[in-house]
Protein 1
Amino acid sequence: MRMVDLIIKKRSGLALNDEEIRWMIRGFTDGSIPDYQMSAMLMAIYFQGMTEQETSVMTDAVEHSGDTVDLSPIKGVKVDKHSTGGVGDKTTLVIVPIVAACGLKVAKMSGRGLGHTGGTVDKLESIPGFQTDMDEEEFFETVNRTGLCVIGQSKNLTPADKLMYALRDVTGTIDSIPLIAVSIMGKKLAAGNDVILLDVTCGSGAFMKKLEDAVALAKEMTSIGERAGKRTAALITDMDQPLGYAIGNNLEVIEAVEVLKGGGPADLKEVCLALASDMMYLAGIGSLEECRVRAQEVITDGSAFEKLLEMTRAQGGDAEYLKDTSKFAKAPFVMEVTADRSGFLMHMNAQECGTASSMLGAGREKKESSLDLTAGIVLSKKTGDTVQKGEVLARLYSSKEELLEPAAKRFLGAIEIGAEQPKARKEVLARVEAGKVDYYID
Ligand code: URA
């Protein structure tokens, strides 16, 4: 087989067969297919797309390109949730304790942040002492004992995806629906859970800016999951503005704790309840309505918050910081950003807000950049709110004073103030399972 023939075949709009796809992923992973040929293939896929059969086989090849996790030593139904990425997205910190308090097992591998999006592992590590690096035996033992554990992705999971993602990042081929589906589902299937709930974000802070694209991605990913024999569903959630008010690592942990203590921003709470109840529903605990009642109950009676404390202690973290979040380190430099006119906050570009937070030190521009766990943004206003000239829109936090000014400029560029109040957006826009789409919007 020759890679150039496969590139020409795909470029001409023809489907690759199973053998060709497996040969290509194997060769790319072992280095016998060079980056320049794989780049050409990725671009051909970007323009020509892939059939359902091609995405399923490519996902399987990516899943098996390295180690896979066998979660069978963990008793009970194992449920995973994955977000396609966003800004201010701290839902994992809230959902995992909720579903564990309801009796499900969560053995979760999460990622670090890159670019404008944050990562759960970085957020958890902002709790002093919290360890996200664990060997498999300890991971299984912790989940069996406590019901939950969140660790970083193991080193040799889906190496083909790591190599391919790095190439996509520099060849303009990230935002391809089949390639995103293969990348995410390859990792999810390798992580070995029985049930997968996908949170497909939609809007200015997400890969998918338009609802129809988010639905197409959700259909593609759920179909891959089902073809692999896993119950898989997706919620399409709004990411046209940051989720909640806090963006940045320890700021987001504090906000997640507020939700688990029964407060917190309404949009964040709504998305967390929808995701947590859907995970329980998919695991067969009850109807969606019953699961939502259960999810609310474990927040109200404090057992979900207790689970977060238990997980923190089990992973070496100091749970006292969660009981009293005023203990968290605070950035030494703060800047208030104010409105230059009165009106309604018409739109907030979530990706730009995420970039501004990253510029303050909360995110990484490169894989090896170090993080300022206290840096970030706390919004005072959200889309649809009224603002008066001179009123505070947000507070920016950083350990480096010189980072405040450029980040403030970037943040202000993301904000649109106008005369008309925008239509309120729903937090959960649609649900996709077994090829069926239920829309929750008019
Ligand atoms: N997240 C991933 O893991 N892969 C993608 O391709 C996009 C988002």
Protein 2
Amino acid sequence: MTTYHLRGASPAKTRADAVVVGAWKTRQGVALADGAEDVASALGRSLRPLLSTLGFLGKPGEVARVPTAGKLATPLLVLVGLGERPRDRAAELLAVRRAAGVAARSTANAASVALALPASDPGLVRNVLEGYLLGGYAFSRYRSTSPDQRAGTVSVLSSVARRQEATSAFEEAQVVARAVHGVRDWVNTPAGDLTPPLFAAEIAKATKGTPVKATVLDEAKLAELGCGGLLGVGGGSSAPPRLVELRYSPADAVAHLALVGKGITFDSGGLSIKTAAGMETMKCDMAGAATVIQATLAIARLGLPVRVTAYACLAENMVSGSSMRPGDVLTIYGGTTVEVLNTDAEGRLVLADGLVRAVEQEPDVIIDVATLTGHMMTALGGRVGAVFGSDEVVESLVEAGRESGERHWPMPMPQDVVDRVHASQIADLAQHDWIRWGGGLFAAAFLREFTGQRPWGHLDIAGPGFHKGAAAGDWTTGGTGFGLTTLVDYARGLSAPAASGV
Ligand code: BES
Ligand code: ZN
Ligand code: MN
């Protein structure tokens, strides 16, 4: 077990196995960051030439380990690069968050670590600890040998350590990081071990001992309700679909937020089958569901005065004699008929059932999260999510991401695309566009049809939901948990409208 402390102590005097400081890359060379002042003066003039000999420039991801030979209370000084000094607050938070993630992997064998990264306000404190906790994530369920040891004591050093806002930010960061770990664990679990029934059971288990109530709707119940999207998509799998509904209803709720997540536990494409390469990472296609479930748990653990109703739409998109076919018509919960034209555009079908269920609860706002389209990955790459929806919701989601280490980019839903959603030859709506371009826009416009004109936001996280490369900053290989901090911060904004401008 690791314990975490927020301290005001000087990094030069703090006793630990290693002390971590940040370094900006400047035109004049390395500049030690805010928080490292004492370290700089204790080491004096010897540090700069040493860093130059080591070739340390302060680039993001760069690490220099310097034995302190008695000049500091810690035997080892670890410098982590922060990159060039950012122009805005969001970039600064992100730089610090990523450096803290690098720090976690660079001090894996130290029994105690002191982090003296920039932490002069509560937002920075939060990003230091979240970055550290997320960068140190490891998925070891399938390893027969246990991974690196974790530090027993981690101290975050901050000049505002005694401020109430800083201690709350510090506590909250631990709740949020635990939830992101939960998302990563689920996303990283192989699809064969997390079919819709198994995932539903895991979700129910995760709510035990929390104020969140879970209801699992099985295939018989879904048939009774007429959830044709989930049943159609899930029909090809021997593991039947599930709809998991969560409810968190605090007595002091000031707003009602509905969350809907895409939970395709494996996406083979169905009869419109994917290529082998296209399928490789498709265990990640339930990341949206994992994110909304863990966000609900985090909001409840933080005790935010926001009522949350969450829907995890779980199905496995497989190939068999009972798979839905291109050309089939499905009836979504509530009666809207949809002509299926590409069985690989399955996410919108399961989300449609969930969205209509959400609308019935008359929430103030609905947000869905989905690894929905490769198109948005093509457009924005692996680090930035696409956001669609009502203007004020989109704006608040982008802002929530800026505070919490995630970048979302607003995307349009042009009228010609909206028109084509209504252009099915035989049903109310067409599920797939005959025009190949802008497929993420069509998907979003399709979803909007099921939102009952309520304020709505849609996060397409196909790019940033899963990280194929090596660990970098606060991201480790595999599931990232992208979207979670944004949802929790968005809920925070709903509970404090004056402060956040929502
Ligand atoms: N799950 C995929 C989207 C995806 C792609 C997520 C890459 C993560 C990484 C989704 O179900 C899908 O297959 N979308 C199609 C949509 C098309 C058929 C309109 C796609 O991206 O090609
Ligand atoms: Zn999919
Ligand atoms: Mn698909």
